[in-house]
Every structure is written in structure tokens, then in C-alpha cells.
Amino acid sequence: MDKAKLRACADRAYRDAAGATTSGLLYLGVRTGLFNTMADKGAMSVEDVVSASELNHRYVQEWLHGMVAAEYLDYDPEANTFELPPEHAYLFASEDTDHYVGGIFHGMPGLLQAAPAVVEAFHHGGGLPYNEFHHEVHESVDLMNRGIYEKRLCEDWLPAVPGLVDKLSAGGTGLDLGCGAGTVTITLAKAFPAGSFSGVDLHPPSIATARAAAQVAGVADQTMFFTDPIETLPSDQRFDLITAFDCVHDLADPAAVLKSVHQRLKPGGTFLVLEIRSGDNLEDNIHPIGAMFYGFSMFHCMTQSLAQGGPGLGSCLGPARTEALMQEAGFTRFEPIKIRGPFNLLYAVGH
Q1: Domain closes at, from 62, 93, 124
Q2: CA distances from 158 to 1, 100, 153, 222, 349 (A)
Q3: 68-99 pLDDT, tens per residue?
Q4: 10 Å Cβ neighbour count for 256?
Q5: Distance from C-alpha of 281 to C-alpha of 61, rounded to nearest angstrom
Q6: How many structural domains are present in the chain?
Q7: How far separated are the first and last CA of the chain, in Å rounded?
């Protein structure tokens, strides 16, 4: 036995166990607002944090100690003070920005609640349907993506497709597939007041959230939200832009859905597809982000597709399989668009 390899494996196991419990601590920091409480405050005593947060002293103290041990907070042992560095606040106290990472941890406990059902699926097949996930998982999907969509969709991604901004500015139409809480639909409506935009999602609570958000944003008259599958929309209803952001790999019947998208895209229209940034080969994905996405796939994306009798494509679909799906649906244009960020790949697809 290679003792060095044994020690290395043990060290990795301990680090991963620490990472799992640290995810729980990060969840608490996000959900209680402790990161926001400490942002831009400099060094704080336990009492300072308790006073500012109005939370229980003993729980706050233990959380602070855990965050120091995990190296998310700086600690001064002489003064017995704790500080959230500005670089860490940039990531954890920055909701609604395109660099916020707190959304990942908002849904982590709910995500792992799927584990017992996944164990059963290993033995009997199937999986955990989307509707049965804890509501914090659905919320976390929006929290992870909202700032990115609001900051980058209309400023960076749409202008990368020649003529698309002009088309939408002139009163174009758009449909967001798997719209969730409606962020993409609402962002488009705000950016293009002459246009009309729809969102479709099979999760009724998400659609209710989207409709309420559209009212608050003042774009209810420009937007429509449906829980009906895209296949059931009128066949003569066509769109200049259809988006499918982070959802093609989740689909129970990707072939049927993508063929319906093909039929409902106007000639010269654009189908924008956002997928997980992953390589086509397993060896391309051997890194922490790859491991995270395989975990997301096991406990969410793949299992909820298999629960519906779908193919369970998984989060790490990769460019080649994504392009093959588009070609099978009848699309002839498949153009990668270079975008910022470590998590996603974007494609402009068309007839």
C-alpha cells in the first residue's frame, strides 16, 4: 500500500467533510444576514456582531469561530475581534450582483435533503421530482442567477448576436423557457419597452412568483407567464428570441421540447442557450467547480429529470452533446458566444 497516497486520501476526506459542514455555516451566514451585518464594519467583537444582528449570542459566537477556522473571517487573537474582509464581502454580501455566491449556499441544505431519495433511486430507478424539493432550492436557483441575468443579459449577451437588439427594440417578442421566478422575462421587458415577453415553467409556485415580480417591476402589461408546456402553445405563435438558461439538461423530454422551440422560432430568430461550463470529457472536469456541478447534477438536475422518465442528461452536458441535441431538433446554426464567468457557456442557435 502506498502510504503517501493513503495520507493524501485521508486529508482529502477530512477537507471534504470540513467543506460539507462549512457549507452549512455559510448557509447560516447567508440566511441570517450575518455576512451583510459584518460587511464594511471592520474588526468586531462577538458582542458587536450580536448587537448589530440581534441574534443569539452563543450561536453567533460559534458561527464566528467556525468561519475563522474555515478562513472566511479574519481573527485578531489579542483583541478577540472578527472581520469580514472586503474581498469576501464582495462575494457574500452582494446579493443581486453578478458576482454574488451566497445563492449557492442558500439552497445547499435543501439540496442535500434529496440524498435519501437518491439512495432509493440507485436501487429502484426514478428520482426526486422538482416539485418535491425544498422551497429554498428553488429560491437559490434565482439567487445564483438573478444578478448575472440582470447585469449581463442585455449589456453583454444580446449585443453579441448581430441585429438582435435592434429587433427587440422595434417591438420584438421573446419567450423564456424554464423561466423560474421570471428574472429573464422581466429583464427583457424592462430593457425593451416596445416588446412583449413570455415565460413558461412547469412549477406553479415559480410562476406565481414571476407574476408578482412583474407587477412590482411595472412590466405586467408586457409579460405573460404560463405553466403549460411549450409544446401546447399555439403552433402559430412565433418569437424573435427564445431563451433556455440553465435548463436544457434538466428536461424530461429534450427532443420534443427543442423541436417545439424550433417550430416557434421566427425565421431569422435566435435561440439563446445557456448551459453549465463543462468539458466534453470527464478529464476536462477534474477540478472543484466540476465536482460541484456533478454534485448538483446528482442531487437536483439529473434526478429530477429521471423522476419524470427523462434521460437525466446531467449538469455537465458539454458543448458537443449540446450541439448534437440542437442538430437533432433541426437547428443548423450553433455558435458559441464568449462570456465572462467560470460557470456557464452560451450558444446562439438558429435555423
Answers
A1: 93
A2: 56, 22, 6, 19, 13
A3: 999 999 999 999 999 999 999 999 999 999 99
A4: 14
A5: 45
A6: 2
A7: 57
* pLDDT confidence of residue 341: 86
3-state secondary structure of 306: helix
As a whole number of angstroms, the distance between CA 82 and CA 76 comes to 7
Mean pLDDT to the nearest integer, 41-60: 98
- C-alpha distances (whole Å) from 1 to each of 5, 9, 11, 291 are 8, 12, 16, 26
**pLDDT attached to residue 185:** 98
Query: Sign of torsion, CA 35 138 100 151?
Result: negative
Residue 34 corresponds to which cell in the numbers above? Answer: 450575518
Rounded CA separation 335/297 (Å): 25
**Domain that includes residue 21, residue range:** 3-93
Q: What is the rounded distance in angstroms from the CA atom of residue 274 to the CA atom of residue 347?
A: 6
For residue 266, the domain's CATH number is 3.40.50.150
Together in a domain, 193 and 45 = no
With H, G, I as helix, E, B as strand and everything else as coil, classify residue 346. strand
**Which burial class, exposed, middle or buried, applies to 245 when counting CB atoms under 10 A from its CB (0-12, 13-18, 19+)?**
buried
Q: What is the largest CA-CA distance in the chain?
A: 72
d(CA 215, CA 50): 37
